Amino acid sequence: MPDKHNDSPATVVVGGGPAGLTAAIALAEGGIATVLVGKRPGTPDNRTTALLAGSVTAMETLGVWAYCAANAAPLKVMRIVDDTGRLWRSPEVKFEASEIGLDAFGYNIENRHLIEALERRARFLPNLQIFEDEVRAVMPQSDEVEVELKDGLPLHAKLVVGADGRQSLCRKAAGIKVDDRRYPQVALTVCLRHSRPHRDASTEFHTPSGPFTFVPLPGQRSSLVWVLDPAKADELAALNDDELSNEIERASHSILGKIEVEPGRGLFPLHVATAQCFADKRIVLVGEAAHVVPPIGAQGLNLGLRDAASIGELAVGAHRRGHDIGGTGILNAYDRMRRADVGSRTLAIDLLNRTLLTDFLPAQGARGLGLYMIDRIGPLRRAVMREGVAPAAAQPRLMRGEVL
Ligand SMILES: Cc1cc2nc3c(=O)[nH]c(=O)nc-3n(C[C@H](O)[C@H](O)[C@H](O)COP(=O)(O)OP(=O)(O)OC[C@H]3O[C@@H](n4cnc5c(N)ncnc54)[C@H](O)[C@@H]3O)c2cc1C
To answer: Among the atoms of ligand 1, which is closest to the Cα of residue 20?
Structure first.
């Protein structure tokens, strides 16, 4: 284990969110001396994450899932309900995990429990040291990267994993630009109790302002992500708990019965961003440092975990062969490995969101027809489900249950 004031690690991971912690655990488990530097976020994260099957397998393989299981609810059924009230409406579509031979598409867990589980696992790893600190500067050089912490300590590493979120300092240090677009929408998030059981089903209402999605939590609880226009989101966020509960019950046509919101609400402006390159100058980007997608279809962190698993796989392989873990070969391979997965998911989410927002009838019709075909054509339907859970083009080894 590197000593904070003497040795230098082979890898420094910047950012202690779920993507950074997963990358650090994968690297350290594979025998690479790793330091994770993470500052605590300013506000508590009350969101939940629907971890799809491949991500759950990766968590099992990394020894994290045992700490998550009690706080996670299975996602066995996914319903999409067209609540746009428009001329071209699609039929209700219902996907069941059993149709593709799975017990569940994935599991939903509150982010605070996921982070806690990752931190517990991280503390057991002799190759991993965690500094609760802020990185002030990242300075790439030809054969290493210097990382300066707020307490003044310099670290030197062969590879830096930038998992420092949307405003990534690591990305700027690598000189990587971002393609970035805002949507005229805000996601309101809240966890809630309800009087009727969810029966392990998520329900996504497609509304003219965006999706309104209930995702099950253990017991008679669910999380809600409600995509709205910004003025309406502000209006709802300003309501007291009883008023907001009533609004949610009304908007959900009472499918979960009486609603009681829990303390803690979040407002997240919708935005899509993709780094023009995922690795340069001995710095690789993972999670939201590399890509941000709107919270539609539970893809964001699942992509981030595949980033973490991919850099783990590449760097551990290079380390075992005695190669430079931050060399150009590894950086280029990482960029190639992640580009198709991130690009295809971003495009699909963007298209779906735009067809909800648009008043253009043919686009609305295309969405309706697409959902109708998925509903009616069995092989297409199963292919869509399999691709949603485990993309054929991007299954790093950890997602297949293989230890690094
Ligand atoms: C409403 C909503 C719902 C969502 N639901 C889902 C879902 O169901 N499924 C899914 O897969 N995804 C979902 N997502 C996406 C998911 O939440 C994000 O992808 C995920 O939180 C990003 O994790 P991260 O580790 O990349 O970044 P973050 O969680 O932002 O972590 C970055 C960390 O880096 C730290 N940091 C930043 N700068 C520094 C520095 N200089 N020094 C040290 N530390 C630093 C920060 O404090 C933070 O802890 C949702 C997103 C939203 C907005």
So the answer is: 25
